[in-house]
Amino acid sequence: MDEYSVIGKRLPRIDAIEKATGTAKYLGDLKIPGMLYGKILRSPYAHAKILRVDTSKAESLKGVRAVVTGKDTQGLLLCVIPHLANKTPLAEDRVRFIGDEIAAVAADSEEIAEEALDLIEVEYEELPGVFDPLEAMKPGAVKIHEKGNVAIHISRAYGDVDKAFQESDYVFEDRFETQAQLHCCLEPHGCIVHFDRLGTLTVWITTQVPHPYRKMLADLLKMPMNKVRVIKVFMGGGFGGRFEMDPMEIIAYFLSRKAERPVRIINTQDEQFTTGRTRYPMVINIKTGVKKDGTMLAREVKVVTDNGAYNSHGITITMGVGTKCTYLWSLPNVRYEADVVFTNKVYGGAFRGYGNPQITFAIESQMDMISEKLGMDVKDLCLKNANYGGQVTCMGHKVTSCALKDCIEKAAETVGWKEKRRTQGDRGVGMASLMHTGGGVRLLFGDCNLSDVFIKMNNDGTIDLASGMAEIGQGSDTALAQIAAEELGIKVSDVNVITGDTWTTPQCLGAWGSRELFVAGNAAKKAALDLKQKLLEEASRMLGVGVEELVAKDRKVSVRANPEKSASIAQVATACYNRGRILAGRGCYDDPTTYIPDANTGYGGVPTYAFGTHAIEVEVDRKTGRVKVLNYVAVHDVGKVINPLLAEGQIEGAGLQGLGYALSEGLAWEEGIVLNPNFQDYRIFYINDTPRIKSVMIESGDPDGPYGAKGLGEPGMVPTAAAIANAIYDAVGVRIKSLPITPEKILMALKEKG
Amino acid sequence: MKRFEILDPNSIEETCELLARYGEEAKVYAGGTALVKLMKKRLVHPSFLLDLKGIQGLHFIREEEDRLTIGALSTLREIETSPLVRQRIGVLGEMIHTIGSVQIRNVGTLAGNLCLADPASDPAPLLIALRANLKVAGSGGKRTIPPEEFFSDFYETALLPEEILEAIEIPFLPQHSGAVYLKHTMREAFDLGVVGVAVRLDLERKDGMCSDVRIVLGGVTSTPARLQKVEALLKGKWIDESLIARVAMTASGEVDPIQDVRASAEYRREMIEVFVERGIKNALERAKGGVS
Amino acid sequence: MKRQLELKVNGLGYSLEVDPHRTLLEVIRDDLGLTGTKLGCGGGECGACTVILDGKAVKSCLMLALDARGKEVWTIEGLSRGQALHLLQQAFVERGAIQCGFCTSGMIMASKALLDENPRPSEQEVKDSLAGNLCRCTGYVKIIEAVLSVTNTEKR
């Protein structure tokens, strides 16, 4: 039974044609009149004092219009969490990782800018560096920051963990290690910044968070917000990598101020790989107590996060891991200790999953090990402890919609669990589940989780919809268009979605935490209903019936009981216009949870949780250690599918990114030097590495989501690494606890096993 | 990239003159994919690029009585898809298929790949195994260099400063001969090999003894490595599975594999054994089946 | 010293003067304003710069502009006529093969080159021709489906 016109339909994205024809303009495609080209001089040392910087030769090179150093940017500190900031846009007296920004040049061409960089003289006093967080924690280690190498120590406990361990029949202790994964957005990060003569600052940028970014800029530069304009253009990927201010934007600002012209800076491939944000590497020690019937009683998690050289999202992600280890299987007793530690390497940032892929790798690998010891099928162990709707976690967080049990069953059934598990040979299946936010979280940018949408209807019934949301490739623009079209009974092509420019759109916290569909979707629905009310009131007047008798569908407003009696939307809109009435709608939505971010936990409320289970079948070549993924089943509780085509795209894309995380990707360092700064050696997966990915979506119908929908941006890569590790164990009996699970690691483990 | 001039010599003689005149400041190129990449990374900065593409008589794939001759300007893709290559030396096309991507192969030349002398070059070990000949032309005249003498070190060849590689000759495989190129990569495609193994096996007759064999490794040492000790263990013997297995186990002892970000020396050693075994088995099957 | 570059792009003839060190990608984007072809990695590893040169797919970031002398180049802009999309573009749009869109023109041009040579490729042949084109968003699944759905191309 088809209750919706466009919701739930496989529809192409509304910007697909622009992208398919090459007309969509990305940052590097823009030409702003008078634009200069900026380049940044970066430290070749992992740790050094800066004794002297001489830019005189660079300044006198023909075609150079501005040069800036730490002297120009002094006093500014950058971090997405301002009170933790310890990174200056340009180094003042010290550099702390290879790639740390020291000076910058703006010139008439990239060629001249590069030449000018070669003319800047810097005198360094090299200092010893420390590259391993465990080493950096030791007393006597090289000090990276004044306050020491531990950025923060986190300590939380819920319930009575020690008692619970005592009551456990078995206690499992395992250590896991995860690596630095790079976003590898195809489009290099960049910005164009113009500080003009009227004192207006315009920033064209690939950002996931245009409105928060605008406020961050205004606060940092002490400018009134109405003089700051952030314009997000078409973006070539985000995945969390464009979720903060990068020093390059502030550097470009100072260059622009000096040169009195717009300045563009775009990363080279080398800069993308060596200075871009990464997923934070973690060492995770996890201790779990269970009863022999499989009841899980307690969990103690100890994490050491490699924070890199400066503060970014490392602290909030590590705090978040503390919250996330209370999620899956909802243990009543949890203790969490973590250290976020500086090292002389590039610093991390947000990355799809925000710490959850790391901790889930540990939790779900261990679940598999626990089930083996208990003599249970891990599927049954999971079903026994599964989260459920109405549950309250040990932190007091409420689970609303939850179809985890269905996900587990469906994943097992679809992959062929019974027939393929624990068989002879070199093939095996493994599973892993996830619990993640499905509608954002109160964590950053204030105590809210808001989105505001404004819609105006034109005389012909088409609409312009403005939202502060950020379309980063995930399809949120399309989802909003579908929601508005559904409510107003018009076509998706009647909806003009305006996003990205902070001067022409209302506020929204942006694309992160899998929040846009839930929060902005609800805001759009509210705005559409607001407009619809006015539309129906006008139609009621025109048709001489009560508002409650009317329905808007197929570009008409008609009487439900007598569809012949109708007026086209264009007629209604024109009638409104002629009477001087404005047909506009506004919907501001903040999620219904009330927790504000807690200073200790860092986490506020989450309006709803996404759940899912991945089951993967692999074949391992025992002689080479190579893993072939034969079958990848991803089952997700999405609440309601707004657009199956786009939802599948998220699951498939995240799945492959997860496979890369599990099997292949990772920055390799030696004394702070990145050894694999290109796609060739970083080993990201290409088309021949793609397995069949079967996505199954379960609709649990969230009570608060628009049409029951929940977020899906991140969940797709949360359980992958654990599912792979478990599948490999099932296939050839070796358990790898560090990522990526390379052929080399598998081969060595097989040899050790004998 | 630093600025440079492009010169268009019309003949090999002119090319050699220009090389003599400009020395280190000049580099020849055809497809240019590797060269442009190196120049962008500022690893090389020639002031003059000598474009060979205007020279007549270098762009061909020809069959002569007992061999295939390939001109320096033939692209990898042309060789890969050439019906002549498919019919007469199929293993050459198979090996080329593993190089880079179609876009790179459409532009890059076999000659260019050899002259770059990347330790992970795929053609290098195979051409040694196939007993190819590299035809070189220079101001001092022409000469022939066997490929095992062509690669002298990381990115260094035996070419003299005023010489260019003109053509590559690859003899056809006789009857009861089989050749294979196996490349072990960590991803399915578009990957540099952690180990490359080229094997050519000649049997004295179908199901006969091994009359000759060449086993060459690529990607494990600075230049391709011929496993002469392993070859000696197979020559003149009836080859069966157990001999192959025993012989493969000694293979890794013959070289000292490099350690780099792609793989450890230890893993390479293990893979040498695995792929030498697989390579000999494959080549034997082909020799028996008469497939080149 | 600048040199003469005569070439055809999307059916139109151009006569330009370019410095030898400029790549074909730079000339297409900066001199001709055809920004549909993208600069991703600049090192021939991502395929976002793929164009068709004399019928063959090439990575334009590694090609010197002057090496396109006298040749014919087709970019993504040349595929559609007004609002009429090429079948490949249509397939990518309809099958969800586009997310952020940055890899799209490279994927489509590489696929076009394949289909011009081989109108009915197998799945493996499609994968082989796209082996050097990176996509971080889609997981490639829908890209493969889109290309396979186009089994006959219009002759251009």
Q: Which range does the strand content of chain A fall in? A: 15-25%
Q: Largest beta sheet of chain A, briefly?
A: 7 strands, mixed
Q: Helical proportion of chain B?
A: 25-40%
Q: So, CATH architecture of the largest domain in chain A?
A: 2-Layer Sandwich
Largest sheet of chain B: 5 strands, antiparallel
Number of domains of chain A: 3
Cα separation of the termini of chain A: 59 Å
Task: Describe the 3D structure.
The complex is a heterotrimer of chains A (754), B (292) and C (156). Chain A is of the alpha+beta class. Chain A folds into three domains: 16-23 and 450-590, Aldehyde oxidase/xanthine dehydrogenase, molybdopterin binding domain (Aldehyde Oxidoreductase, domain 4, 2-Layer Sandwich), CATH 3.30.365.10; 31-127 and 186-237 and 242-275, Aldehyde Oxidoreductase, domain 3, CATH 3.90.1170; 282-387 and 401-442 and 598-753, Aldehyde Oxidoreductase, domain 4. In chain A, 29% of the residues lie in helices and 25% in strands. In chain A, the strands form seven sheets. In chain A, strands 3-5-1-12-9-10-11 form a seven-stranded mixed beta sheet, sandwiched between helices. In chain A, strands 7-15-14-13-8 form a five-stranded mixed beta sheet, with helices on both faces. Chain A has a four-stranded mixed beta sheet with strand order 16-24-25-28, sandwiched between helices. In chain A, helix 15 crosses helix 16 (569-578) and helix 17 crosses helix 19. Chain B has 292 residues and is α+β, with helices and mostly antiparallel strands. Chain B is 36% helix and 25% strand. Chain B has helices at 12-22, 33-40, 76-81, 83-88, 90-97, 102-107, 110-116, 123-129, 147-150, 228-234, 241-251, 265-289; strands spanning 5-7, 26-29, 48-51, 61-64, 67-71, 133-138, 141-145, 151-153, 156-157, 163-171, 177-184, 195-203, 210-218, 225-226. In chain B, the strands form four sheets. A five-stranded antiparallel beta sheet of chain B has the order 4-5-10-6-7. In chain B, a hairpin with a 2-residue loop joins strand 4 and strand 5 (67-71). In chain B, helix 10 (228-234) runs antiparallel to helix 11 (241-251) and helix 11 packs antiparallel against helix 12. The longest helix of chain B is centred in the C-terminal third of the chain and has 25 residues, at 265-289. Chain B is globular. In chain C, strand 3 (50-53) and strand 4 form a beta hairpin. Chain C is an alpha+beta fold and 156 residues long. Chain C has two domains: 3-78, Roll (Ubiquitin-like (UB roll)), CATH 3.10.20.30; 87-149, DNA polymerase, domain 1. Chain C has helices at 24-31, 87-94, 104-117, 123-129, 141-149; strands at 3-9, 12-18, 50-53, 56-59, 72-74. At the A-C interface, helix 1 and helix 17 of A face helix 2, helix 3 and helix 5 of C.
